[in-house]
């Protein structure tokens, strides 16, 4: 029993939970972005593109604000609350511009009745191209970073901020959920909950969902299908753009390079695996976050044996790094194979709305 | 002449040309805006950038006073043909799938698996001209190894393409998602395979992370005279092989039962099944053919002997695979059209290179142009329709004017 308890509160467990959340939360938010678009009847294959764009906008904003010196005083004074305000502001900027970017998809898919898969692919090509073009023009290299310092020193919570010393014991819960954590993670979870409630418990949400199931019927009841679909796609763009910045801030040290390592596509898979329902999507995202975490840091995970020694069991398995790297994608495929029979996509997704066809 | 304008093929070509012009225009506009907004660049450099976007492949450098010069540049044209070779094949790959109603976004993965199989065969099957230390040459002629490596690449691509095909036909998993996952799995598997192999180039220490060129085993695609026609470039006979494959695909789709069945499945899978066509089998087959073409792209690209493969590819997917999508869309999935759009894409590629080396702008502008073109092709049907409507209206006006005065023309 003691061993079990020791394992559940070990440093490895703290690390695992922290890292899993860091990977799972952007996935969760971006998958919800997918849900919003598809529930309104538009396939958003460009989640990846939106993330790339949002990451770039966020990093660029952080860089500019640092150059203007707005939060310099707060940083030197160690005023972490004001720095978190900075993060919130950047998330809002990334969300707004993500929404603007998604208008390209909305216009093509809703007004011009374009092929949504091809339109989404176009945005997936456009985002890295534009982003890399500007990054090269701004930074004369292929990556854009913060003007000064790094993501952890500016935006991460540390126990020293709460009056603890370097070597003070802080307890399992504090260590896992406060120390070395980006509060943006919790803000994202909050946004996820709020937006899920909006989708399911409000009149707006019901109307939006009805446009993805039977737009003709919705139209006959006086719901403006085009408006609802525009709302779905722009909310999708905003969430994905914000998710892109949070991903860049928490996993790549606030760096934009026109790439989010296929996270947007993983989010798409998470959405399908979660059957277009927020709660299942949250579960799926946690599962994938766990696999991503294992892939990234399997070498430092351990359990404690009876004598209290650390056993690095995954490292001792001696499997190739590449195996862990491909695991999330392989698991996605296998899981999709098992769940595809019961999956139920919104009925009208991908079909341009035409008043004439009943 | 009127019939010519009414043909849907003509309309497709016009729609594509319009898309290309708008795409190039968008790229030029971006250059202009950035040029004017950046104090160090200005209008003059923007004008240089725009000229390179349109005519980069004819660039011959700068003259004594620093102005851009244009003319016939054999090495650039040759390189354009060389880069067109894999683009034509991945374009064909995407086009074949499109014709069967499938969106093959898995070309990068199929391209990678083809590349890996080809390199493994071409480097680990010693030919009569093996030069690697510690491996004895055998009696196998180099062309024999070439053929085996090429076919191996196609086969690997076909197998990798068949996986999403099987998942689609048996389990009804969306092929786009399955393709994306197989892409990343391929990227990791290929990295893994080369990581544990002994084919990493350790001889030239300056180049870390690369695989040996196939020339260490004496294997390389023959120039077929093209290398003399375009001296100083990478071109070889592979471009001719790509063109032949395009013609083969054209013949399959327009002259054979198999092609007809595939098209029928693309038009309406359930109607095809009702007509007695095995739709499930055809979906797998289409993805396999598609994959084999993407595999051939990788095979030919690295069998050229003058390109090296960067093996640690688990974080990036090859752009050549993704660029097959615009190549196919721009050609409206016509196999012969793919030859031309493949050339156009590689021309843009060269233009981007020239932009990077000769101006303050960079090659990503051409990716923007490609993305705009793909975006436009998403509603190419609409553009085609608009062209058609204008033509028809003119036609109607003309005939109405000839028949009796006024009535219809006014209405």
Condensed summary:
The complex is a heterodimer of chains A (358) and B (411). With 358 residues, chain A is an all-alpha fold. Chain A has one domain (2-160, 171-342): ABC transporter involved in vitamin B12 uptake, BtuC, CATH 1.10.3470.
Q: What does this entry look like structurally?
A:
- The complex is a heterodimer of chains A (358) and B (411).
- The longest helix of chain A has 32 residues, at 80-111.
- Chain A has one domain (2-160, 171-342): ABC transporter involved in vitamin B12 uptake, BtuC (Orthogonal Bundle).
- A two-stranded antiparallel sheet of chain A has the order 1-2.
- In chain A, helix 2 runs parallel beside helix 9 (183-201).
- Chain A has 358 residues and is mainly alpha-helical.
- Chain A has helices spanning 2-8, 11-39, 47-68, 72-77, 80-111, 116-139, 151-155, 172-177, 183-201, 203-213, 215-220, 225-251, 263-273, 278-297, 313-317, 321-339; strands spanning 303-304, 310-311.
- Chain A is 70% helix and 1% strand.
- Chain B is mainly alpha-helical and 411 residues long.
- Chain B has two domains: 1-72 and 341-411, no CATH class; 77-333, ABC transporter involved in vitamin B12 uptake, BtuC (Orthogonal Bundle).
- Chain B contains 17 helices and two strands.
- Chain B has helices spanning 2-6, 8-37, 42-55, 74-99, 107-124, 142-171, 175-195, 226-229, 238-255, 257-267, 269-274, 279-303, 319-330, 335-358, 364-378, 380-403, 407-410; strands spanning 59-62, 68-70.
- In chain B, strands 1-2 form a two-stranded antiparallel ribbon.
- In chain B, helix 2 packs across helix 16 (380-403) and helix 6 runs antiparallel to helix 7 (175-195).
- Chain B is globular and about 80 Å long.
- Residues 402-411 of chain B have low confidence and may be disordered.
- At the A-B interface, helix 6, helix 13 and helix 16 of A face helix 7, helix 13 and helix 15 of B.
């Amino acid at each position: 029993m003691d061993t079990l308890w020791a394992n559940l509160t070990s440093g490895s467990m703290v690390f695992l939970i922290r890292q899993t959340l860091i990977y799972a939360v952007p996935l969760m938010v971006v998958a919800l972005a997918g849900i919003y678009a598809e529930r309104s009847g538009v396939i958003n294959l460009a989640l990846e593109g939106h993330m790339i764009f949002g990451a770039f906008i966020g990093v660029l904003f952080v860089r500019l604000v640092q150059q203007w010196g707005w939060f310099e005083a707060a940083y030197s004074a160690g005023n972490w609350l004001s720095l978190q305000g900075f993060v919130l502001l950047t998330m809002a900027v990334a969300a707004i511009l993500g929404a603007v970017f998604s208008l390209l998809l909305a216009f093509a898919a809703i007004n011009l009745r374009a092929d949504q898969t091809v339109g989404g692919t176009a945005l997936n090509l456009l985002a890295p191209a534009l982003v890399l073009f500007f990054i090269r023009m701004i930074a004369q290299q292929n990556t854009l970073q913060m003007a000064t310092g790094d993501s952890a020193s500016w935006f991460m919570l540390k126990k020293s901020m709460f009056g603890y010393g370097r070597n003070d014991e802080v307890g399992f819960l504090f260590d896992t959920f406060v120390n070395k954590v980006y509060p943006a993670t919790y803000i994202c979870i909050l946004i996820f909950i709020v937006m899920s409630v909006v989708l399911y418990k409000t009149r707006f949400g019901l109307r939006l969902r009805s446009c993805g199931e039977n737009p003709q019927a919705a139209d006959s009841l006086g719901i403006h299908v085009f408006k609802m679909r525009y709302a779905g796609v722009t909310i999708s763009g905003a969430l994905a753009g914000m998710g892109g910045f949070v991903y860049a801030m928490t996993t790549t040290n606030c760096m934009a390079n026109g790439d989010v390592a296929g996270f947007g596509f993983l989010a798409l898979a998470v959405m399908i695996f979660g059957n277009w329902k927020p709660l299942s999507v949250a579960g799926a995202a946690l599962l994938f976050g766990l696999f991503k975490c294992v892939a990234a840091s399997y070498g430092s995970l351990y359990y404690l044996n009876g004598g209290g020694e650390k056993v690095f069991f995954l490292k001792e398995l001696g499997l190739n790094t590449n195996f862990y790297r491909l695991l999330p994608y392989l698991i996605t495929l296998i899981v999709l194979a098992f769940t595809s029979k019961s999956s139920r996509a919104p009925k009208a997704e991908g079909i341009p709305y035409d008043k004439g066809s009943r | 002449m009127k019939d010519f304008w009414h043909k849907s093929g003509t309309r497709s070509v016009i729609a594509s040309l319009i898309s290309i012009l708008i795409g190039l225009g968008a790229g030029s506009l971006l250059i202009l805006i950035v040029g004017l907004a950046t104090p160090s660049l200005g209008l003059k450099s923007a004008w240089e950038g725009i000229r390179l976007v349109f005519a980069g492949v004819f660039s011959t450098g700068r003259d004594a006073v620093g102005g851009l010069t244009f003319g016939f540049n054999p090495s650039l044209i040759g390189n354009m043909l060389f880069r067109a070779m894999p683009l034509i094949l991945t374009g064909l790959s995407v086009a074949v799938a499109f014709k069967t109603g499938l969106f093959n976004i898995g070309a990068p993965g199929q391209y990678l698996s083809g590349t890996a199989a080809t390199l493994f065969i071409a480097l680990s099957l010693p030919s009569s001209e093996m030069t690697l230390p510690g491996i004895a040459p055998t009696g196998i002629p180099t062309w024999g190894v070439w053929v085996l490596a090429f076919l191996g690449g196609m086969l690997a691509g076909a197998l990798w393409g068949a996986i999403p095909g099987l998942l689609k036909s048996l389990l009804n998993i969306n092929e786009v998602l399955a393709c994306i996952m197989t892409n990343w799995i391929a990227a990791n598997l290929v990295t893994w395979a080369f990581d544990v192999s002994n084919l990493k180039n350790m001889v030239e220490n300056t180049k870390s992370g690369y695989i040996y060129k196939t020339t260490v085993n004496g294997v390389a695609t023959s120039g077929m005279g093209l290398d003399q026609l375009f001296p100083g470039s990478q071109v070889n006979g592979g471009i001719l092989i790509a063109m032949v494959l395009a013609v083969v695909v054209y013949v399959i789709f327009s002259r054979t039962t198999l092609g007809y069945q595939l098209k029928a499945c693309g038009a309406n899978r359930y109607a095809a099944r009702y007509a007695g066509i095995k739709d499930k089998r055809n979906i797998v087959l289409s993805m396999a053919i598609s994959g084999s073409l993407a595999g051939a792209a990788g095979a030919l690209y690295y069998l050229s002997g003058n390109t090296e493969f960067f093996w640690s590819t688990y974080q990036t997917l090859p752009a050549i695979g993704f660029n097959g999508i615009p190549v196919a869309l721009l050609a409206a999935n016509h196999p012969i059209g793919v030859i031309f759009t493949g050339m156009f894409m590689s021309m843009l590629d060269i233009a981007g290179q020239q932009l990077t080396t000769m101006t303050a702008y960079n090659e990503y502008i051409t990716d923007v142009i490609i993305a705009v073109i793909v975006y436009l092709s998403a509603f190419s049907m609409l553009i085609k329709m608009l062209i058609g409507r204008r033509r028809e209206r003119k036609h109607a006006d003309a005939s109405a004017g000839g028949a009796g005065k006024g009535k219809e023309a006014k209405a």
